[in-house]
Amino acid sequence: MLKNWLKIAFINYRKNWLSTIINILGLSVGLCVFLLIFIHLQDERSYEQHNPNKDNIYFIENGNVSFGIMPSSSYPELTVSKEKFSEIEDYAIANSWNYYKTRLIAGKRSAYTSSCRASGSYFDFFPFERIAGSFNNAISDDNKMALSEETAKSLFGDEYQNCIGKTVKIDDSQNKEYVITAVYKNPTENSVFKPGFIMKHPDIGKQNNSQWTNYSYIGYFKIKPGTDIQNLEKKLSDQQAAQEKILSEKWGEKYDEKNTAKVYLTPISKMKLEAKSEGVEKGDKKSIMILLSLSALILLLSGINLINLKTAQASQRAKEVGVRKVVGSTKSKLVLQFLLETFMICFVAYIVAFAMVELLLPTYNKFLNKEIKLNDPSLFIYTGLLLIVFSLISGLIPALYLSNFKPINTLKGNFARSRHGIWLRNSILTLQLIISSFFIICSLIIHNQVNYMMNKDLGFKGDQVINIQFKKTDWQNDYNSKKYVRLKNEVSKIAGVEDITGSINSIGMGFSNASVVRNALDTLKSVENVIVGGIDYNYFKFYKIKFASGRDMDLRFASDTISGAIANETFIKKMGWNQNQALGKELITGWEEKGHNYKIIGIVKDFYMTGMDKPIEPMVFFNYDRNWAKNNMGNLQIKISGNDINGTLERIKEFWTTKAEPGYPYDYEFVDKQFAKTFEKFQKQQTLFTTLNIVVLVIALLGLFALSSLLIEQRLKDVAIKKTLGADEKTIVWDLTKRFLLICVIAVLISMPFGYYAMNEWLKDFAYRIDMPVWPYVLSLFLLLILTFVVVSFKAYRATKINLVKYLKYE
Hints:
- This protein is of the alpha+beta class.
- Belongs to the ABC-4 integral membrane protein family.
């Protein structure tokens, strides 16, 4: 019996070779897209799964309505909570900067690597494989350091396992030696905890550890099993709110109960995707889930093609079903036979899809800046189950449909006129076109929004400006401000350099300092989460940022250097002032003590610094050469002439690698490109969605072509009769295509509310967004109508060229 079924299956595959190829190709592409997104999701979920304590260690985040949620904690929040709440076994601090490299020196060797400033409990929370030394008290003192195996090899060569007790230096002007206490091996599994070296956090044990609102520590709690996490979050939130209330009363402010503090706890096994804030190297869960849903739609579209083509072929197999029922075959056997045929197509598509994934994965990894590998056994289990379920769902409908034929009708040849068959095919075709229209609408709106972001006036001119970040921190030689002045003077002499400026907060790189800023005369008036930081005196002129009122800083006035400040329009509005009222007002930032006031001398027009998907932040700027700002001046921003850009870049590189920071890797970035990275995520969404849209259209149109071919072939006798009666080609083509066009119109109209809802939700991520346009919906209708007409009319036109005798000789 099975052998007979296989013979029948291959005969039908060969007979309908075009639809068979389209089914396999469509399913392969759909499954390939789904697998690529799915393995990306699985890769993101795999972070920290190797940690044996993953279910008991929680990442701590703090927030309120005003400044949102931060991935950081205060030191007393960690220490006091451990003593106060019995549910908490211990805490750990792990301030990692994987993106920031530090140079270590041991003799004539050096290593340029990432670091982690941590508390002594670090190795209890994040167990590493020990290579040498001991983890006990490994970072208990300021002069101790633990090295990763890679870093130790770079510094000590093949004898790296014998480096315990030896010393290394950090390449800064402190010239301090650190004793190596342990060598560890970073996990091979996915983890955000892979530092090149670990040492004690420099602030632990100092006076600022008593500040409840100094959110400078990436903290983790080890919590006892069985703890009610929501209840613990409430206790921690109440404790933090109480401390903020005390601080408000200290400043004479009325505490806002609606703006109360909130503490969030997320298991480290889920923090890569589930963190409430930007987390620690957080993944973009929302985008992944959107793409996964869209890839599932593509897979559904492929299944629809399969169902549609199988049901369209029903008339060809109607007599076969009728004969088999007459000779005694049961309905269940017929269903099994047709399911087997569907499974064979799906299995071949499954193999082809994995081959496509293997070929596309390197390109996909490059696009995502990841190293995803196709080596997870669970992936094959999940996809194997998906194959079975998909085969059952997509095969069961046509199987039941074909097995329900009545022998007496099929043997008489009446099936082709069945209203039930026509209704089913039309319904499935409508669903197919709804999905296609949905993708077209969404793709056009996403493209429009990203273009709006790219073409919007940013408020600054960053063309031909490069940003070079200092790698080596100058802690003792009169702070980084002296280094900045020295390098600025020397680089300005290089041919092709037009101008140089600098700032603590760099455009496109986020902000390093934010604070509460108060009216010095009325501290009840304040703005939270204000970007504050030093700039060079020519900063606004350099970037051609316009002034709304007042003036720029002037070095001829000592008061400008000592206390002059420039605010942006957003800050002024949040303080409740107009531009004239703001001039001359004195401010106190959260970083300063009372008496260290800043006086507003100018107001600049709003400009973007951190990205365009968020509102413009309130900002206050001052001259960099004062107080805490001196040691945070860590970059040069250089405007180069357009006459010899490449030559100028080479000359700057030669100076930087030989005189400025020899021994360090040299890298720079154009400010425009640097800022473009702030919406790179959305550009990638645009690229992925456009790619998916093309895939959807190809699958849909291939399916439409195959379906229209089968349906038109069933009407060739009607075409022959009409031609015999004198109908012209245009009339016949229109008669064969108008039903498809009507279905297309209905499908687009149904897809419009779904597209509107989806895009309205997506646009909510943007503080500055386009108004919902109408033209993508109209264009989607016309585009699908044109494509449908072209695809169907091509086959319809060929139908008008048939040999009339062939189809009329039996009439």
